[in-house]
Amino acid sequence: MAHYKAPLRDIQFVLEDLLDVYSSYQTLPGYEETTPDLVNAVFEEAAKFSEEVLTPLNAVGDKEGCQLIDGEVKTPTGFKEAYQAFVAGGWPTMEQPVEYGGQGLPLSIGLVIREMIGTANWAWGMYPGLSHGATLTIFDHGTEAQKETYLKPLTSGEWTGTMCLTEAQCGTDLGLLKSKAEPNDDGSYRISGSKIFISAGEHDLAENIVHIVLARLPDAPEGTKGISLFIVPKFVPTEDGSVGKRNAVSCGSLEHKMGIHGNATCVLNFDGATGYMLGEPNKGLRCMFTFMNVARLGTGIQGLAHTELAFQNSLAYAKDRLSMRSLTGPKNPDGPADPIIVHPDVRRMLLTQKAFAEGGRVLIYFAGTLVDTTEKSTDPAKREEAESLLGFLTPIIKAFLTETGSESANLGMQCFGGHGYISEWGMEQNARDARIATLYEGTTGIQSLDLLGRKVLGSRGKLLKPVTAQIIAFCKKHRWNREMRPFVIPLWKSVKRWKSLTRRIGFSAMRNKDQVGAASVDYLMYSGYVLLGFIWAKSAYAAQQKLSEEANAETDTGKITDKSFYQAKIQTAEFYFAKILPRTASLQATIKTGSKSLMAMSEDDF
Length: 606
Description:
- There is one protein chain.
- The chain has 606 residues and is an alpha+beta fold.
- Among the domains are: 289-450, Butyryl-CoA Dehydrogenase, subunit A, domain 3; 465-597, no CATH class.
- It is built from 19 helices and eleven strands.
- It has helices at 8-18, 21-25, 36-64, 79-88, 107-120, 122-141, 144-156, 284-320, 344-376, 380-416, 418-421, 427-435, 444-457, 465-478, 485-511, 514-548, 563-580, 583-592, 596-599, and strands at 67-69, 72-74, 159-164, 180-183, 189-199, 208-215, 228-233, 235-237, 243-246, 249-254, 265-277.
- Strands 3, 4, 5, 6, 7, 10 and 11 form a seven-stranded mixed sheet that branches.
- It starts with 7 loop residues before the first helix and ends in a 7-residue tail after the last helix.
């Protein structure tokens, strides 16, 4: 069984030393009382719940899966009790609005808790995780009556939420969806149709499930311009907000999946179910993007979670497993062989996992601070800047971190050798669970088209420019720093190539639109590697500063700064720049080849 220990020290480093979140909170109305003492206490309890309650259930959920019995889904052993403890502890309320029973903490703090929960048990964490998107969508687009009815029980965790988009004939291309919404005399709608791949679509954890559903009105135009959004509860609430009669929505079957067995992925049938319009008619896709953007950040966390889990378990195994002798002489002379951590290739795999986990954590937490700014800043210019940057980063977070998460999960299996391929150690489960993250909420290809086609070329470079400018400014600031030159010089060159490649693709796309599709995935991965390079350069600088301040001394808060922790940050940055950032060179080459080799062959010749 895989083990998990929340990386509280690294979380602290990211929030305090890199992002300085507590200073930012003082400038955002409503977050002023979010102090290190409060947050660290919350994190310690979240870590305890994740490690002691959820981690042991991870293998249980994978082995047992969910069962569909007479139209009702039974979750694996212990899942329901864990959810009851989760609700009793107030965990669903953490970053929810105070006016609906939430505790009003910043989203950036909530993302940390979600990372812990997801790493401990991703399948379980999806049940409450989807409620965040449902809550935000109703909060942003619902009527006052809808907010009053649904937000309090969703906030408390008494009810959970889902997102219902996909149908058998349409996934990414939602313009093809066929679900119908016919108006009733009382202002409600009759929702008919089937949705597939609905995570947490039916379960026994909460007393009600609130489905957020896309469907078409009778007179709706074709394509995405004719889609509306509806609230369709499993049980229709009564006037006083309590659970009423069972709605005409049912689980037709459970999907048989490669991974995340502990989460119920359902086919949902809507047979004239009562629904309530959310937002304006035929504007449903725009409203649903509120949910989808939250889900995409959440999927980025999934990539991070599988990376962290693989790294922690690979590291422990590599220190314990004995095999062969070091090429430079015995490191364990009293034993029959050396631990495999002495071998360079094992270290390559471990450091790759560590670099992706710790770098990805910074990227996600930074995105969380951008959401905080968009929600609470009183400065319109800062809100607009944060929204633009968040829009640019979201497809990279979703796609890049899930691709590196899948890579890291597979490296975890590789570190264990044959033991990684059997279920005992949990590494094959981690690899299976990780694989879906590159697919749902928009595949890597779709995210890449969004980044390159819509965000970069669609804005004529406007969204890219402040990102590259910030990185170049950092490089210029530190170019004469002897300790920083190994980082800033290659980073600066990578950013220049990033800008040059963007111009090249833009010009070639004027003649042939396929050039965008041909370059998009490589472009997104290139972007991700450069952004993580920036993060690791900043991490190295922060660690250097801490080491120069006598890192082993006790601070005024009683916290012991760890010299070896900061040295490891610098050494991991050195590894990243030596072994990972150079991947951009091959991506540059493939981007430059364009679409000719992809499109030359006729369909019949494949």
